[in-house]
Amino acid sequence: MPNPDATVGLPRDGVVSIPVEVMAPVGTKVRKQPSRRNLELVLLIFAWAVGVLGTLQIGWANGVEPNSQLWITAGVVGALALVMHAVVRWKARYADPFLLPVATLLTILGLVMIYRLDVAATERAVLNESPAPTPDVYSQLTWFTVAVILFVSVLFLLRDHRILQRYTYTFGFAGLVLLVLPLAPIIGTTVNGATLWVRLGGFSFQPAELAKILLTIFFAGYLVEKRDSLALVRTKFLGIGFPRLKDLGPIIVAWLVSLGVLIFQRDLGTSLLFFGLFVSMLYIATQRRSWLILGGLMFIIGAVLAYFAFGHVRLRVTVWLDPWTYANDDGYQIVQSLFGLANGGILGAGLGQGFPNLVPFANTDFIVAALGEELGVTGLIAMLLLYAILIERGLRAAVSVRDSFGQLLAAGLSITLALQVFVIIGGVTRLIPLTGLTTPFLSYGGSSLIANWIIIALLLRISDRARRPEVTMPSPDEAVTQVVRRV
Amino acid sequence: MSRPIRRIAFVLGILLVALLVNVTVIQVVLAGDYRDRPGNQRVLLEEYDRERGPILVGSNPAARSKETGDTLKFLRVYSDGPLYAPVTGFYSLVYGATGLERTENRILTGSSSLFVVDRAEQLFAGRQPVGGAVTTTINARAQKAAFDGLRGKKGAVVAIEPSTGRILASVQSPSFDPNILSSHDPATIREYYTTLEADPGKPLLNRPIVSLNPPGSTFKIVTAAAALASGRFTPDTVIPGPRTYDLPDSTKKIRNWNGQSCGPGDLVTLRQALAVSCNTAFAWLGNQLGADALRTQADLMGFDQNFEIPLRAATSRFPENPDDPQTAMSAIGQFDVRATALQMAMVGAAVANSGKTMNPYLVQEVRGPDLAILQTTTPSMYEQAMTSINAAQLTEMLVNVVENGTGSNARIPGIRVAGKTGTAQTGNDNPAVAWFVAFAPAQSAQVAVAVVVEDAGAAEVSGNQLAAPIARAVIEAVLR
Fold first, then answer.
1. Distance between CA A38 and CA A265 in Å, rounded?
2. Which of B5, B37, B126 shows the shortest C-beta gap to A57?
3. Is A284 left (phi over 0), alpha (psi -120 to 50) or beta?
4. What is the pLDDT of residues B193-230, one digit of tens each?
5. Are the CB atoms for B477 and B157 separated by under 8 Å?
6. Domain ranges of chain B
7. CB atoms within 10 A of CB B367
8. Residue A435: which residues within 8 A CB-CB, separation 6 or more?
9. Of A1, A158, B303, B396, whose CB has the highest number of CB atoms within 10 Å?
10. Do A14 and B41 touch (CB under 8 A)?
């Protein structure tokens, strides 16, 4: 099968001095583009089957007979996947065929692991003769349903991603509000030392998860608008052109906000994520390496400041460098995580046969340790490659979509995913100091799941636009922002 | 903008590789190191999470795993802890495992290659492996009889089935309770272990197979066998048996235990010399035969050899280069001759089994989790230690010991018991060690037994007084 992207993709070297819209002959039909929706369906069925087999295996390993609840759950998950597939078929016919199945498979793996940890928790409760804990898998399933509803809504309501650009500043403002919301009195809640929860009524959520999408939209819109002035070079230093002082405003603001998140919410992960995201997008928009260097320097300054100013940051680093000394207190989690991974070895203990429940927060921050223990390094590598596929498909959409806003947005969303995966998995496997972030799609938790599914919806929308064979008229918004330049 | 995106993608690719390399290092390269780290409960939990197979005596479990309501899912329970301790050993959180718990660990945990079929099944079903069962050769009645006989004494008993080498009893006193050492409470385990270590009776020592003592007069069985093997002596050969024997090249003398001459005119037949346990006659005999002949005979019966039954037994020794006086002393089981109870039981068994020394063993069969027999130990001969004719003659001489000589306490009405007493000095001040080696019924022996009682008092009669009744009880338990 010929590479479908080849017909619409940009030239590889990217040195084109005309707006992309001009490249496609207006009004003419480009060669028929296969939608590859059937491939998507087959992959979805495969993902669903993996989940069912995994669940059955956990049952076999722990002497739980497959019951009606299990089949209902499997049915609901299958139905949700089919609904998403149908909506994509209908509303985003030419969207990338891998995004949906890979995200679904990751979500299902998460559900399977959460179920497995429920089984362990129940077993423990039986042994201790304490009341059985409420299983988490059903609330995660509920959150998945909500995520699917939002996913469907995005694809229905957002006919074209460029509409988002109109509300750049609204999203920016909303994003900032969401970010600081946990600090608000009454509704803000501190959990395990980090203030990143908001409790409203019976529900609690992490607004930062949603904020990361809104801010990505804002960054994309803002940078499309401002990138030319940001790309201007004034001072050359060591052969590298640096931006004008007055253009430093935005990066300083982003830096201060990130530091603020770190100081007031004690959320190292989110802070790192935002700053990294902003700097990468700034670089993509301007193509100036000087922004990366500046960003890198500011990151180092921020990190050093944080290290010396805050005990909790210092503690994270100390524990990272030598977890064994703190194996029974502050390093307990990471040490247990490493023990779990070691127990997994190459092929893993087998689903349902390890001791993933020995790691605290096994179903949220440390779900990768749980998966690594039961599926082994083989399973973890496969999972990392799933993320790699997801991110690569997102970046591919970014490269192939025609408008700059879409490019920046798709790239930004993919980078958010990538950074989050790296920061949390790197932390859990002691590659970098541990910071509290959820693992996209896998971790137990509604906010994270919903936010990441919205990201997939947006990426699908953008990739549909990128791969759609018919040429549409450029939207009026875009005309303002398009400038003749290298792409 | 595709160029910077590609560059970012490249950087993200590097991050991905870093993650991949890192997890591989942890889960493949460092995994073993992490597993062995202190504080890693997983390895332990994994073992305690499986149902460990039982150690069976007959069809009753001497050790089995009981499900608990504990984090450690299974508790090891020993139904007659102290009785079977030298066989089962213990299975401890703190001190690891000993005995069959240790040597048969792979079978008991179900990880042995014997279980490939079950493992494959469990792999596909995703089930925890279930351990196999180990059936011992122990005869519960013999074990109990020996244990009761040793109560309050310090010593060991080993009984062997002469025709196969099956170990029917392996008992020690003082013993310990493996239940406490195998509990799930580290504090209790440590406390009990410390107490046991401090006990002068050394209960943690596997006495029947590890404790080495000079065999004393029971070694005269070996000397007599060597004499018959030389062809120069028959049971009726008359040899000198004076009150004292002057050691060659020395001013020292060997005396008889009762200070008397062994026969009229200081002469005695070989048969009679054995019956009265005549030291002077056997010392003379030792010098006549020479150290090499004695060692050869001893080695054919298992001396100077490591036996794994599968527990590792201590090596019984015949001295390497004794001079003539030392040879004379060695011939009566003194000087540097050292033997375990297991070894002396093997000596008795070899004579009883027409001169064939069998390899001793403790594991009768291995059964799968479904109790299907996976492996049965086949008896194997270690050496032909004597001709069957010589063995028959020696058997008659040993029956004479019990019926007319020093081993009177081993007599059982209606059954011909062959036996030999022994008392040995372990040093100048140390109390003596009393021995009795016996087998019965003499013509077709079903059991050979060696009893050793330490701290027995100095008299030669102590072998007969202290050890022989225990041997008789074990024989009766087997024959009944």
1. 45
2. B126
3. alpha
4. 999 999 988 999 999 999 999 998 899 999 999 999 99
5. no
6. 212-364+378-479
7. 21
8. A267, A268, A269, A272, A316, A423, A424, A427
9. B303
10. no
- Do B433 and B216 contact (CB within 8 A), yes or no? yes
pTM for this one?
A: 0.64
What is the predicted pLDDT for the residue at B124?
Answer: 60
b/e burial code for range B89-123 (CB count within 10 A of at least 16 → b): bbbbbeeebbbbbbbbbebbbbbbebbeebbeebe
- Cβ–Cβ < 8 Å for A396, A384: no
Of A61, A124, A391, the CB nearest to B12: A391
Question: Which of A369, A388, A441 minimizes the C-alpha distance to A143?
Answer: A441
Q: How far apart are CA B379 and CA B164, in angstroms?
A: 5
**So what's the architecture of B212-364+378-479 in CATH?**
3-Layer(aba) Sandwich (3.40)
What CA–CA distance (Å, rounded) separates A179 from A102? 29
Rounded to whole angstroms, the Cα distance separating A215 from A194 reads: 21
Query: Two tokens at A253?
Result: 């603001």
The tokens describing B30, both together, are 């460092």
Distance CA B90, CA B9 (A): 58
Q: Which residue has the tokens 């995966």?
A: A421
Nearest to A107, CA basis, from A410, A393, A376, A448: A448
Residue B254 in 3-state DSSP?
strand
Contacting residues for A22 by C-beta, under 8 A, at least 6 apart: none
B37: chain A residues, CB-CB within 8 Å: 324, 339
Cβ-nearest to A10 among B2, B35, B40:
B2
Let me know if A474 is exposed, middle or buried by CB neighbors in 10 A (0-12, 13-18, 19+): middle
State residue B365 phi and psi, 5-degree precision.
-155, 160
Identity of the amino acid at B416: R
pLDDT tens-digit readout, A147-156: 999 999 999 9
Helix pair A68-91, A136-157: axis angle to 10 deg: 10
Compute CA distances B296 → B223, B292, B382, B437, whole Å. Answer: 10, 6, 14, 20
B331 touches B297 (CB < 8 A): no
Q: Which two tokens stand for residue B11?
A: 């950087």
Q: What is the DSSP string of B29-44?
A: ISHHHHHTSTT-HHHH
Residue listed under structure tokens 């179920």? A115
> pLDDT band at A471, cuts 50/70/90?
low
Q: Which of B346, B348, B327, B334 is nearest to B432 (CA)?
A: B334
A interface test, pick of B2, B28, B71 with most A CB neighbours within 10 Å: B2
The DSSP output letter for A272 is H
d(CA B361, CA B169) in angstroms, rounded, equals 11
Instruction: Name the 3-class secondary structure at B450.
Output: strand
The rounded distance, in Å, linking the Cα atoms of B355 and B394 is 10
Q: What is the pLDDT of residues A77-110, one digit of tens each?
A: 999 999 999 999 999 999 999 999 999 999 999 9
**Which ranges of A322-445 would DSSP assign to H, the alpha helix?**
332-344, 367-400, 404-428
Enumerate the active-site residues of B: 217
DSSP A366: T
Six token digits for residue B178: 């493996």
Helix axis angle, A268-286 to A404-428, nearest 10°: 150
Q: Specify whether the CB–CB gap between B309 and B361 falls below 8 A.
A: yes
Contact B272, B262 (CB under 8 A): yes
Q: Is A288 on the interface with B (CB under 8 A)?
A: no
Do residues A53 and A351 make contact, with C-beta atoms less than 8 angstroms apart? no
Question: Pairing relation of β-strands A235-237 and A203-205?
Answer: unpaired
Chain A residues whose CB is inside 8 A of the B129 CB are none
B395 φ, ψ (degrees, to nearest 5): -60, -45
**Whether B138 contacts B84, CB under 8 Å:** yes
